[in-house]
């Protein structure tokens, strides 16, 4: 019985990783398809007459001149990276959590650290 529990634990850890890797591959494939659209959007903003734009558009243009395309083309968005999110484990119930607004925000025990970081970012 102990052997079966160990096998289940190994499968439990490997399955989410495999699914996450498959999902990452799908996202990368979609990203390749979306690349021309990203370049088109960036070109659109960079070709606008800078002096005639309202401040919000000027902020986007400035961002796109410095950095690559982003869904959130604002400086504040650069401070949020998934790797900056610390994931902890509660030993009493063996579940992962993050600190959100000075409180523990728990996640399902089957979620990987990477999945939690992506979800929180």
Itemize the secondary structure elements and their pairings.
Elements: H1 2-46, H2 55-66, E1 88-90, E2 95-100, E3 103-106, H3 113-120
Antiparallel strand pairs: 1-2, 2-3
Explain this structure:
This protein is mainly α. The protein has a domain at 80-121. Helix content is 54%, strand content 11%. It is elongated, with a radius of gyration of 21 Å.
Question: Main traits of this protein?
Answer:
121 residues, mainly alpha, 3 helices, 54% helix
Q: Judging from the principal axes of the Cα atoms, what is the shape?
A: elongated
Strands of the widest sheet, in order across it, are 1-2-3
Helix tally equals 3
The major pleated sheet works out as: 3 strands, antiparallel
What structural class do the secondary elements suggest? mainly alpha
Could you tell me the radius of gyration in angstroms? 21 Å
Order of helices and strands: HHEEEH
Strand content: 5-15%
**Low-confidence runs of at least 5 consecutive residues:** none
Mean pLDDT: 77
Q: Based on DSSP secondary structure assignment, what is the total number of beta strands?
A: 3
In whole angstroms, the N-to-C terminal distance is 40 Å
Helicity, as a percent range: 40-55%
Short description, anyone?
54% of the residues lie in helices and 11% in strands.
């Amino acid at each position: 019985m102990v052997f079966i529990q160990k096998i289940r634990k190994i499968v439990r850890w490997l399955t989410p990783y495999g699914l996450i890797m498959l999902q990452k591959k799908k996202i990368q494939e979609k990203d390749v398809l979306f690349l021309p659209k990203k370049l088109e959007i960036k070109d659109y903003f960079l070709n606008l007459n800078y002096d005639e734009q309202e401040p919000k558009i000027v902020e986007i243009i400035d961002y796109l001149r410095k950095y690559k395309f982003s869904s959130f083309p604002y400086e504040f968005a650069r401070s949020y990276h998934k790797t900056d999110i610390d994931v902890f484990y509660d030993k009493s119930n063996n579940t992962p959590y993050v600190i959100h607004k000075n409180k523990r925000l728990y996640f399902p025990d089957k979620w990987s650290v990477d999945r939690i970081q992506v979800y929180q970012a």
